[in-house]
What we know:
Blueprint: H1 17-31, E1 45-50, H2 56-67, E2 71-76, H3 77-80, H4 88-98, E3 101-105, H5 109-118, E4 123-125, H6 133-147, E5 155-159, H7 164-176, E6 179-183, H8 192-201, E7 206-208, E8 219-222, H9 234-240, H10 248-251, E9 259-262, H11 274-277, H12 284-303
Helix pairs in contact: 1-12, 2-12, 4-5, 6-7, 6-12, 7-8
Bound molecules: phosphoric acid mono(formamide)ester and norvaline (NVA).
Amino acid sequence: RPVMAGRDFLSNLDMTAAELRAVMDTAHSMKRGEWRGVKPLAGLSIALVFEKASLRTRTTFDVGMYQLGGHAITLSNTEIGLGTRERVSDVARNLERWVDAVMGRVYLQQTLQELAQHASVPVINGLSDMLHPAQLLADYQTIEEEFGTDLRGRRVVYIGDGNNLANSHIHMGILTGTDVTIVTPVGYEPNAGVLMDAVRAGVNITLTNDLAAIAGADVLYTDVWISMGQEAEADIRRRAFQGYQVTPEMLDTLAPDGIFLHCLPAHYGEETVPEATEHPKSRVFDQAENRLHAQKALMYHLMGDLKPRW
Ligand code: CP
Ligand code: NVA
């Protein structure tokens, strides 16, 4: 049974630990092929709204919807001009009349909040400046494949920019009990509001600038130094992040069964090198595959109780 029917998914904290467990179980089951031929979203549609580029998010939401019997329509911002051609609230009030869910990849989390406020259908965060919660579902599916479903105390170390990925990692630490450490250069720490979420939850997150924190990690995770929309800061950022590159030598210092994850795309020569993503400890392509399974599970749990309106 769908456990988050009709809800928005703008943040991992929009789900409880029990709901996350249900979504993960569904994702594993879908990956094992146990839903083959099952079409719980038959007759339903989702709009995929993109203000920025995407390979994985676009492909996996579209293919995932197809595999569950539904239909996806991709809308690029040159077509709809979110907030420029038309105000965000009007876009929401149009889309809700035609489709059963909206996924948005946007610059500002605020835009997603506005879409969610004005659309009666579920709105899914497909990455904003602040969070990337759908990615983290795939990441934790990958982590569970390695370490099982009880992840309490597992050391997850994120290295690099305290960006949307780092923020969502903190949320997953709150939900799952992993021991999260964020290693950044000075001035590139995660969002203060997200850190407050951890404080409010009574969960300890380690913030450090010291690369020594990587040693013995169960999971080492990195992401680009220059996120989409930050191109003007590229030179300053490349200088600030010197030394924070994930190398094969760094992977040798993880726990013996430790793994390396990266949400991709990789900017080789910056946050990592091909020898790391191709290292035996790397699971980055399994992780990319899991975007499909995890998001199918998410869409099932948000939309699976709906009947076609037509
Ligand atoms: N990891 C991720 O979201 O990839 P895309 O930007 O290609 O969608
Ligand atoms: N932090 C990156 C992630 C891309 C999937 C960005 O926001 O561009």
